[in-house]
Amino acid sequence: MTEVFGYPLPVILGQLMLGLVNGSFYAMLSLGLAVIFGLLGVVNFAHGAFYMLGAYAAYLALNLLGVDYWFALVLSPLVIGALGIVLERLLLRHLYQLDPLYGLLLTFGLALIAEGVMHDYFGSSGQSYPVPRALQGVFNLGFMILPVYRAWVIVASLAVCFSTWFLIERTRLGSTLRAATENPRLVQAFGTNVPLIVMATYGAGVGLAALAGVLAAPVIQVSPMMGNSLVIVVFAVVVIGGMGSIFGAIVSGLVLGMVEGLTKVVYPEASSVVVFLIMAVVLIWRPAGLFGRT
User: Which of 282, 20, 4 is nearest to 153 (CA)?
Assistant: First the structure.
């Protein structure tokens, strides 16, 4: 049997596939962060909290209202995105002309509030969310048994990520968004409602985090701290890809997820820090990130 790094090839391929599932979550969360920072210049430390709230919105919608998974995929991002818009209008818009550190501190405080509130209501134990019937079962890939739901996560994440990239980088709407953030006065002079664009952009970035939370709910238990540690890794992914680079966030998230998965086989002790080691190397070699503008 063919071996790679001293391990059977099926084991390596299986771990890479599992890493791709994690990388799909990294890519979606990194995408939301990159959209918000790239277009608004806000370091959104509450992103992990919005991811957690998206999962809880799906959980509560199912248990209180009977809303199934497929409706939750639409409803949860809309509800949490609307919450993000309210916070942007009430709080964040006052900080755009200040040092980004103020936005980081504010969103960090919002994350602590969200986690504390959910902890008080639901406790620290996780809540299970069922896999939808249509996505139950497994695929036999030959080298591993892959649950259908995890395959769906990969496909859905890739579709959302590259659709968002195309919208921002290849459409007239995306050009308007980028122009409104680079020179808002000029764009406003041409009759574009810049505050509305800013508000919608933040809401869309938050909605992406909530969508990732819904996708994650059947995979991991829904808990108040589910986004706490993940957001640190996601920030590292964004830095590696290049702060504000949409394409960089997607590619880095997917690749680093697989690197992390491979490390769990080759050298398990380093799997929790490999992303940060790569970040350190990238910052030394290319401070703007792999896809960032120098």
Answer: 20
Largest CA distance in the chain: 67
Tokens 């589910």 belong to residue: 226
Burial state string for 220-239 with b = 16 or more CB within 10 A and e = fewer than 16 = eebbbebbbebbebbbbbbb
292 token code pair = 């960032």
Dump pLDDT digits (tens) for 187-223.
788 778 888 888 888 999 999 999 999 999 999 889 9
Q: Give the Cα-Cα-Cα angle 225, 231, 234 (nearest 5 degrees).
A: 150
Among candidate residues 269, 201, 284, 278, the one with its CA nearest the CA of residue 237: 278
For the entire predicted model, the pTM comes to: 0.93
- Cβ within 8 Å of residue 29, ≥6 positions away: 47, 48, 51, 208, 209, 212, 230, 231, 234, 253
